[in-house]
Amino acid sequence: MREYENEIETLALRVLVVTFEAAPMAELYVRGTGLRWPLVLDSSRSLYDAYGMSQGRWWAIWGPASWLAYGKLILRGRRVRRTSADVYQLGGDVLIDPGGAIVVHHVGDGPADRPALTDLLDPVRRAKNTKA
């Protein structure tokens, strides 16, 4: 995401990272990644529920697509760590315009279902070009 920071700023987007992890784990994540955006702890998972991010299916979490995605990360030098978190909790991406309208709403099927950031930004780019 860092490689798109300038474009995110140009598009006047604000980033908010949401996690259900406990505060100590969230702090480790912030330190480990150098996260520059605000992080919200949603231990009740009310935001997850509000955006339809419930529990993933077993096959989506543990199936071949997930193993392939993790294998690619390992080949790129990423270290995959064991988690004590709820691995079945789905995540996703939501882009909301300044008026409160949802521009992008993607709920992942599992860890392998992560859209490219360019795909998430395309609707914002199109909207901005239409207004220009």
What descriptive keywords fit this protein?
132 residues, alpha+beta, Glutaredoxin, two-stranded parallel ribbon, two-stranded antiparallel sheet, 6 helices, 4 strands
The CATH topology name reads: Glutaredoxin
Largest beta sheet: what is the strand line-up? Answer: 1-2
Briefly note the structural class of the backbone: alpha+beta
Topology pattern, helix = H, strand = E: HEHEHHHEEH
Could you characterize what this model shows?
This protein has 132 residues and is an alpha+beta fold. The chain has a single domain, classed as Glutaredoxin (3-Layer(aba) Sandwich), CATH 3.40.30. 41% of the residues lie in helices and 13% in strands. The chain is built from six helices and four strands, in the order αβαβαααββα. The protein has helices at residues 5-10, 23-33, 46-50, 58-62, 64-75, 117-131, and strands at 17-19, 39-41, 92-96, 102-107. The chain has a two-stranded parallel ribbon with strand order 1-2. A two-stranded antiparallel ribbon has the order 3-4. The longest helix has 15 residues, at 117-131. The chain starts with a helix and ends with a helix. The mean pLDDT is 84.
